[in-house]
Amino acid sequence: MKKVIAQYREAILPEHRGNPLIEALPPMLDEQEILLAFSHFPPPDEHIRWSGSASVRRHYVDRIKNFRCPQTCYTECYRYLERVIRDGYAARNPLKSSTQQYLHYYADERPDIEPEDGYFHPSADTVTIVGNSGSGKTTMLEQVLGYFPQVIEHTEYKGTIPGVSHQVIWIKVNCPYNASVRDLCESILAMLDNVLGSDTTKPATRNGSLARQIAQKIKSSFLGVLVIDEMQRLKFSRTGGEATLIDFLHEIVDSLGVSLVFCGNHPFEETLSKKLRIARRAESGGFMIISAPGYNTPDWQSFITYLWPLQWTNVETPLTRELNEELFLLSRGNLSVAQLIYRRAQMQVIGSGNEVINKAVLRAAVPPLSARAEDFTDITTFLSAPDPVPGKPDTHRINSVSEAINDDGSESSCLLITGDLTRPQHTELYDKTMDALKSFEDKITRIKYRSVFRSLSAEQENFGRLTAYGLLCTDPSLE
């Protein structure tokens, strides 16, 4: 929880000026400031990379978990949230008499005498964010919410009492599995108690009393936006339980003036579209579909450009177009999966004696459960294809694992890639193989029998005939 003391800034819109709830919010960010605010690039730590033991460097690889490279959708999400929070507070100025009516009367109840500023009229909206699992929508949403303090403490506003002590900007809860209004109310109550640091509120036993209880708690805390994640759990059926929950949530918007954010996986948008009334209101404040970026988009290219230098291998593997394309194909552009593959790839080669990251290593690092998921069934095919297709990446299956020795002498499982000539396949031949590889390119350029190979190739003869020329090595460990 992030709690701050109110610092007031003059509101941009004239109608928002003089409202302590709005003027206490953080300043608006432009596009460049948004990208900087939501970025996090862990430092590689060159000293650890070049002098640290394998076990220590593996720990440093976990820093990739905290890597954040905001996409262009972050700007849109921030704009939506910033707007619905301010708009929701516009009608709830604690210094106005209409807000006092709002605080002391339930739902559509009104006093006999109209307040000096008129009756309370809510101005909140609903934002809906939809995307595939792992597309980064929840991470994006939590980062954007994290820019706003969760609680602002008010003491004095322009020499007067502001009419509010604690302002809760946002809370985030999950949609109940059974679409129960009561379960959701209890989650909201518990979350508000938690962020305010107050004693636990005992939920009322009767639903009507519970509804009044949650309404009063939301009002007194001046909640700005209620975020509900995992909305894909909501599926309308004949029982009507889901419709009841949606009606309750929109009552929060209509009567309490609190903006909502729905966040869910596909096919949540299909669920919403079945009910026109619900669909219209669910996108009143904005609608976003989060999908994996394309290879040639700025989102993917900036992501891989900032991710790739985070290497703790003792060999620097530069980012090439081939490696970039391979990681994109293996992750299908899913940024969280791409991060996981890259992290696993480094874990597998660190301490193996050859810490170069190549295409085969990336393929072997594909997480097995993700490879079997429905969204990634094409990856399984990609990895298990028997023969390479001309013009496409090599697609041999990778499944060879062997034991290696760490720097500290302990044994650990390190990956040895089948058919990968850049790393030894048998530990007993390690020294000889590495010596041969060091001067391999030089030896190739100085080969004396080029005409023999050309003749055999042209005649389509078996290379077994090299024995006749004394050029076939049958036992590399001895010859």
From TrEMBL:
InterPro entries: AAA+_ATPase (IPR003593), AAA_22 (IPR049945), ExeA_AAA_ATPase_DNA-bind (IPR052026), P-loop_NTPase (IPR027417). One of its GO terms (molecular function) is ATP binding. Pfam families: AAA_22. This is ATP-binding protein. It comes from Pseudocitrobacter cyperus. Residues 123-283 form the AAA+ ATPase domain. SUPFAM superfamilies: P-loop containing nucleoside triphosphate hydrolases. Keywords: ATP-binding, Nucleotide-binding.
